[in-house]
Amino acid sequence: MLRKIRNRNIIVLYLLLPFAFLLFTSLLAPSFQLARLKYNGGGDWYVSPTSLPNLIRFCNKNLGTNINEEESVVEVGSKDIFNYPFIHMTGHGNVVFSQSEAENLRNYLISGGFLNINDSYGMNIFIRREMKKVFPETDFVELPPSHPIFHQKYDFPNGIPKIHEHDAKPAQAFGIIYNGRLVCLFNFECDIGDGWEDPEVHHDSEEIRQKALKMGANIIQYVLMGEESKSKK
Q: Given this model, what pLDDT does residue 177 score?
């Protein structure tokens, strides 16, 4: 009788092994994915292809995140945008959102999503015009150096760092705040996204690259964990 029970237990164990393996591998798998925003208007939304994957690897190593290292691409008007907690937007020049795209982006942002906009150069007038379609009731506000996004894992007492020179203007960080929550960050005259790229792309010093990656990690940490992450440095 005991032998029959033992044999039955062994059979059950073998049957459960595949499910246990699937559970184990799912726990090891990346928990979520970040996406690049594809938009219309002629701007090069696809520029700096190594930037986001490099930032993700930096965050996984230094913040202990578990983000899929392969970025996804999502269109402004796609319902798939709701699958991503963090959307990265970059490029040079023109940006155009249709009314339905603006509505879709608004719904995404007020539902808990986040849009990070990196001005590679020349986006300022266009992104301000198009984001006004998304949030007609509010404007970008400059984030002061005291804002928690600059004081996460890494401390930036002077606010967003200057990575690349554009028009000899100071680096600025602007945000859209909806119901007390920062839903969109727009960096201007600093181009931290270029600093995330492979070293041979722009030949930045390691000090500059580290500064850009650390600021990017602060953004990721702030978005995923909120202001509470400051106390967990």
A: 98
DSSP assignment of the chain:
-HHHHHHHHHHHHHHHHHHHHHHHHHHHS-SB--EEEE-BSS--TT--TTHHHHHHHHHHHHT---B-SSPEEEETT-GGGGG-S-EEEEEES--B--HHHHHHHHHHHHTT--EEEEEEES-HHHHHHHHHHH-TT---EEPPTTSGGGBSSSB-TTSSPP-S-SSS---EEEEEEETTEEEEEEEESS-HHHHTS-HHHH---HHHHHHHHHHHHHHHHHHHHGGGGGGG-
**Same domain (yes/no): 145, 184:** yes
Confidence category of residue 150, pLDDT binned at 50, 70, 90: very high
pLDDT one-digit tens code per residue, 55-67: 999 999 999 999 9
78 and 12, same structural domain? no
User: 50 and 22: one domain?
Assistant: no
